[in-house]
Amino acid sequence: MYGVDYLDTMANMASLRSVRTVFALGAPAGHYFRNFDLSQAFTFSECDQDVYMELPPLGMMGIVNPLCGQGKESGNVAKLKRMLYGMKDSGRKWMQLLDKFFRDIGAVPTITDSMVYNWKFNGFEARFAVHVDDILCSAAHPYVHTEFSRLLRERFGETRVTEEPTTFLLGMKVHHDRERKQVVLSQAAYTRKLLAAFGIDENVTSAATPLPPDPVFQKFDGIASQEDSYRMMCICGGLQWLQTCTRPDIAFATNMLARYASNPSPEHISYANRVLRYLSGTIEMGITYHETDVPGLVFSRKLVHLKGKQPTTGYNPGGDQRII
After folding, report:
1. Domain residue spans in the chain?
2. The CATH number of domain 16-44+85-183 is 3.30.70
3. What is the pTM of this model?
4. What percent of the chain is predicted at pLDDT more than 70?
């Protein structure tokens, strides 16, 4: 709506927490994982508004369309029948179309994330996590993948659907050992790029932990240089994506450093460099999901001194005790 959200661009995608949940539930259940991709997905959606566009130059990209007349030089315009990439409403229209497809085949969106669907086909359980035009399917039997592929191709066209076993997803490497009922998510390639961006060599002496045993975080009374502030904010930004996806072990350190990123002290910079050195020694580390349930209890008062701040206590109760 113009004046409300016209300048916003949206796309339908499951949260990373939901994607990890699909793996966490599927791995111990012995599920099979497969990726489905729909090419030029936004162009499937019909344009229900009066939208006109200039004609492309005649012969553009070697294509001559006699319906275009003299092309752009003619001064004519064309009315769109389908949505195009770059249009403000194309993501929402595609979301509506894909949601209708899932509901038509009997899949039900979850309450916590509308882009995660549960489906039962011939008694077999399946879950889907949607990321715009990429669909992760976790199924109890390969036959479910086959049937879902058939339905996709029937609805969107044979040539527009590609599929493959899930080995990479959203920049994460996925190692699935079905016999051991285990899935490992890691980001070694991204970690190496992050370390290289900040001049950290893999041969540098690594740190055993993200932070020292008794770190002290307090507001810096001085004024950090522009270079230090910029570097700290870049480090925190890079670490945020890593800890959000596959490295919860650096989440506490990353979030603490982010509080002081705008005006970091020499100690804060030292802590940030320590996190990078910790990553240099744990590049291949990731997050593992398997049959064993591990309860968790975290009490931060014993971990860090916060001057002028209250400690944060977290507890993971019983029941399904996977930590995601």
Report:
1. 16-44+85-183, 187-316
2. yes
3. 0.79
4. 80
